[in-house]
Design goal:
This protein is of the alpha/beta class and about 110 residues long. It is built from three helices and five strands, in the order E-H-E-H-E-E-H-E. The chain is globular, with a radius of gyration of 14 Å.
Length: about 110
């Protein structure tokens, strides 16, 4: 029999861990989170105490996140949404999408979502 390999996951813009919970229930190992909200980080730490926890995607990368098979996350959408001002990349929140892509390019996971 082959040993079961648990894919490792780093979660950006983790929030309360919705994506993380789904991946954990699918048999993945959550190895890192990046979330700016302190209350969300507290909840994430309770659920995944062994995961690396960072608070700023702009300072996250291969130097402080573990290697992983999957990077998951949904950057803030207000700058692109019809419910917002639709400033796109002219809104600082819109630029966080570029930070997501930078982290992915540094970590080089097999998959991203």
């Amino acid at each position: 029999m082959h040993p079961v390999v648990q894919p490792s996951v780093v979660s950006l813009f983790a929030g309360i861990g919705g994506f993380d919970l789904g991946f954990a229930r699918a048999g993945c190992r959550i190895v890192g989170h990046v979330e700016s909200d302190a209350n969300c980080r507290k909840l994430l730490a309770e659920k995944w105490p062994d995961a690396v926890a960072l608070d700023d995607v702009c300072t996250a990368g291969a130097h402080n996140l573990p290697p992983c098979d999957v990077v998951v996350g949904g950057s803030p959408c207000q700058s692109f949404s019809v419910a917002g001002l639709r400033k796109g990349l002219n809104d600082p929140r819109g630029n966080l999408l570029l930070e997501y892509l930078r982290v992915v390019s540094e970590l080089r996971p097999k998959w991203m979502l």
